[in-house]
């Protein structure tokens, strides 16, 4: 195992313009092993059409690098894009992993989407369910999953050497933080989770799951703990929990639902599989006034 204190994984980000999501390939410099974090499956929701351009780009890059894909990680059940995890697994192998609190998310949205008994609420759609502090290997690199709930109950941050993949726990310093008003979300919990991330060493590289280029700046997805502590507009510069919770709650009340929340939840709570109707055809539902 590479010494975690000197481990510096190679990280490549792939920006998805349609959903402002960044997917990552994380490579072990000491072996040919890699992981993909937060992949995206393309959907034209109005047309009910799913395609794989973004996932194919990730797959092509892994092949070009000659990497052995060992893990396909979801930082959480995304509400704004669909995961391509099973498509990538089919092409490249690897285990699909998510936080064990996925069971809570499956229970909540299993009810909202009125799923039948064929939808298991036990996380069995995933290959690995991480508990807080669990470690797993990517080649010689030890990765550690830490619970960072608040945006959703199952959010985890994955720390690999000097790199941390924070999901939607934080945005870039000028973007602040993600909303905490989805079912199971909580602003106070999110604040505590952000403090866990900010307790990592100051020079830890932080990789965001989303960036919206606030105030017209170019899209960026990498920052550091020191930068976030000093400059994050929602939690930096010593903002208190009370200030954060008040701001976050007021802001969330003004936000529209993400455009792709309905298809995203149905697919992502199944580890990226599109649900099927009773004849086995891929089919999505819309719960009317259900969200
Ligand atoms: Fe999210």
TrEMBL record:
The keyword Metal-binding applies. GO terms for molecular function: metal ion binding; sulfur dioxygenase activity. Coiled coil: none annotated. GO terms for biological process: glutathione metabolic process; hydrogen sulfide metabolic process. Keywords: Metal-binding. InterPro entries: Metallo-B-lactamas (IPR001279), Mito_Persulfide_Diox (IPR051682), POD-like_MBL-fold (IPR044528), RibonucZ/Hydroxyglut_hydro (IPR036866). Signal peptide: none annotated. Residues 20-210 form the Metallo-beta-lactamase domain. SUPFAM superfamilies: Metallo-hydrolase/oxidoreductase. PANTHER family: PERSULFIDE DIOXYGENASE ETHE1, PERSULFIDE DIOXYGENASE ETHE1, MITOCHONDRIAL. This is Glyoxylase, beta-lactamase superfamily II. The lineage of its organism: Bacteria, Pseudomonadati, Pseudomonadota, Alphaproteobacteria, Rhodobacterales.
């Amino acid at each position: 195992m590479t010494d975690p204190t000197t481990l510096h994984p190679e990280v490549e980000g792939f920006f998805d313009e349609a959903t402002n999501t960044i997917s990552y390939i994380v490579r072990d410099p000491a072996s040919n092993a890699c992981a993909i974090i937060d992949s995206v499956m393309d959907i034209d929701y109005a047309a009910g059409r799913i395609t794989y351009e973004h996932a194919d780009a990730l797959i092509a890059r892994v092949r070009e690098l000659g990497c052995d894909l060992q893990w396909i990680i979801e930082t959480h059940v995304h509400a704004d894009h669909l995961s391509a995890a099973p498509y990538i697994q089919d092409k490249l192998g690897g285990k699909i992993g998510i936080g064990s609190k996925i069971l809570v998310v499956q229970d909540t949205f299993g009810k909202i989407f009125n799923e039948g008994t064929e939808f298991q609420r036990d996380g069995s759609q995933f290959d690995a369910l991480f508990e807080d502090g669990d470690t797993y290997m990517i080649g010689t690199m030890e990765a550690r999953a830490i619970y960072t709930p608040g945006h959703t109950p199952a959010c985890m941050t994955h720390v690999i050497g000097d790199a941390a993949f924070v999901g939607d726990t934080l945005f870039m310093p000028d973007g602040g933080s993600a909303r905490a008003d989805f079912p199971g979300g909580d602003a106070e919990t999110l604040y505590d989770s952000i403090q866990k991330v900010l307790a990592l060493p100051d020079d830890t590289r932080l990789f965001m799951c989303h960036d919206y280029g606030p105030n017209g700046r170019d899209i960026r997805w990498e920052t550091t703990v020191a930068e976030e502590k000093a400059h994050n507009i929602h939690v930096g510069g010593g903002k208190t929990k009370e200030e954060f919770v008040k701001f976050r709650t007021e802001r969330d009340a003004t936000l529209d639902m993400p455009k792709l929340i309905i298809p995203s939840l149905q697919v992502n709570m199944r580890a990226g599989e599109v649900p099927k109707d009773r004849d086995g055809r891929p089919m999505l539902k819309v719960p009317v006034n259900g969200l």
